[in-house]
Amino acid sequence: MAEETVAAEEPAKPTIITVFNQKGGVGKTTTSVNLAVCLAALGRRVVLVDLDSQSNATTNVGVTPPVSTGAYQLITGKAALEECLKKTAFENLRLVGGSDELAWADIELAMQPECQAVLVRSLAKPPADVDLIVIDCPPAPGIVSVNALVAADMVVMPVMPSPHALDGLHKAWWNVNRVRSHYNRDLHTINIVLTMTEEGELTKRLSEDIIAEFGPRVMPVMVPRDNVVIEAAARDLPVVSMAPQSPPARAYLRLAELLLGRLRHVGGGAAPDHDVAADRLAVWSAELNGRRSHLAVPEPGATPDPGWTEAPEMAAPVLGPGAGWKIGAGIGLLLLGAVLGFAAASAWFAFPPG
Question: Which end of the chain offers a freer environment for a tag, N or C, measured as fewer CB atoms within 10 Å?
Fold first, then answer.
């Protein structure tokens, strides 16, 4: 009797959650980091990808940028996901870190064929031990952001209720749906999260306007404005690990649970366990809460932390002869790259092929 050949089952593709808003200052990176940590606390094996050249998401999970192999190499197709992964202090959470090189990624991607799908190709063969990938986008509609949207199964869009929020939300919504229509018909849901909310009549009215227009796409949880979020960022910690019982931390844990609930309708696994997650966050808080930022200003008379540079040294760089024209040329190239990247992305959004 001939031997039967049993085909090996391919590992399930991880679900990709892209956190996107082309407007800065709305809590995008804070949402990315805290959502990733909460998903890890809920027992999912998570990878956080920092596509922002400012690398704040990288810093907030305790990794000092720049990383030698990270998001730049991933987004440009120079390295596979497995080569870019770095451990973090949080069980179940790994990082693909950011670097200054990401500022140039739009230019490099624009020169590649099917430049909107480079990240999809880089993530085509992920490690088997990854359940979810959370992508923190840069705050601009460039080709890097387009790649993150094309790769996404779900988009999370943080929005701060402000007088211009609805107009910005319309533009971001239009761009996401443009990508969905032409490049990513597998994008299941677009979820709006109200962040930095405050008590008051204006915030209430603006929130009601957004909910009235976008209905169930607005998540039934609001992240309140709280100084504890700023304090956590200053200490390079997610707020959910520094102050897990604070109102913003509880809101982000609830957000993670709601998103997993929505994913279950498209094959996203078992229901999350809130109590287990809360216990994990409490343990991480106890372990990490005493860690001070590596960038913290030393107290008078105290020994500076490693990597601290006194201001006078920073203010007196050594420049060789003829450095002026080199600096000017570098700035010119950077500005040209930004213009080219923005123009290319605008062209993709407005006139996509097909």
Answer: N
- Kind of pairing between the strands at 132-136 and 46-50: parallel
Q: CB atoms < 10 A from the CB of 282, how many?
A: 14
For 44-80, the pLDDT digits (tens) are 999 999 999 999 999 999 998 888 899 999 999 999 9
Q: How many residues does the chain have?
A: 354
pLDDT greater than 60 at residue 311: no
Distance CA 70, CA 83 (A): 8
Q: Tell me what pLDDT residue 339 has.
A: 58
- Reply yes or no on whether the pLDDT at 335 is more than 50: yes
More confident residue, 332 or 29: 29
Rounded to a whole number of angstroms, the CA Rg of the chain reads: 21
**What pLDDT, on a 0 to 100 scale, did the predictor assign at position 135?**
98
50: closest CA among 68, 34, 64, 32? 32
Cα dihedral 104, 105, 109, 115 in deg (nearest 10): -150
Instruction: Let me know: does 41 contact 283? Beta carbons within 8 Å.
Output: no
> Edge-to-edge, what's the strand order for the sheet holding 218-224?
86-87, 93-96, 46-50, 132-136, 15-19, 154-159, 189-197, 218-224
Q: Give the model confidence (pLDDT) of 223-233 as tens digits.
A: 999 999 999 98
Q: What is the pTM of this model?
A: 0.80
State CA 333 to chain mean position distance: 27
Q: Say yes or no to pLDDT of 6 above 80.
A: no
pLDDT at residue 27, as a whole number: 92
Residue 237 and residue 31: Cα distance in Å, rounded? 13
**Cβ neighbours of residue 332 under 8 Å, at least 6 residues apart?**
none
For the chain, the maximum distance between any two Cα atoms, rounded to a whole number of angstroms, is 82
